[in-house]
What we know:
Layout: H1 8-20, E1 23-24, H2 25-36, H3 40-53, E2 56-59, E3 62-65, H4 69-85, H5 89-99, H6 104-117
Antiparallel strand pairs: 1-3, 2-3
Helix pairs in contact: 1-3, 2-3
Amino acid sequence: MEYIKLFDAEYRVMQIIWESEPLTSRELAEICLKELNWQRTTTYTMLKKLIKKGYAQNDKKIVSSLISKKEVQKNESKDFVEKNFAGSLYSFIAAFTSDNKLEEEEIKKIKKLISDSKK
């Protein structure tokens, strides 16, 4: 599936779907009212957009995701690094760590990720 960028509001609805799926469209509207202060019509409009993009489905009023949170995070991260750091992961990490000091355990995990990603 070709990745289609999610807008912030769409991502917020997907977060709710991932955390609660499967859920009824009514339950989704109730959660969005409570957490986002959205009216039912706003939630249903947003759900229709997510269905059109291929990210969610509403089968007999049961809402579920068609793409994993991990897949969206991977694509959003790639897009962010490409847009803001000319695709350079090194530049992103350098910018991030300039003001954010990493714990030793985080450094170990990052080193393992890098080691595991070598081809």
